[in-house]
Specification:
mainly alpha, elongated
Amino acid sequence: MTAPDPVRAGRARNGAAAAILVLEGIATLFVPRGIAQDGEGLTGGRLTYLLVLAAVLVLAAGVQRRERGVLIGTALQVPLLLTGLLNNVMWFVAGAFVLIWLYLLQVRKELLGSPFGTPRAQVPDDGDGGPAPTP
């Protein structure tokens, strides 16, 4: 199944992906509070990792409309999931975000034919198998 208007479907999916990345960035900012209360505590390296990851996730939300935006967002799911090494609760939180991201990729594949790549506008069809003539 493909969308009747792939460009519009791609834009809607890009908006959803951008929203998920922003939410992931916000959730990452809550991790230092949990880390500070257990184990070694909040070290400078851990804090830097989390702040940089949160900033990169929010910045990646801004590039979702670009050709490589989906690929960048997909790659950022790995460091997000690795925050579980810092705080055990993040295995569940980041895991939920990764599952949502995979669902968005599946929806994109169903609507556009590919989970990655740029959506292309469909050429109007006049019923004879070739493109419709332009007026």
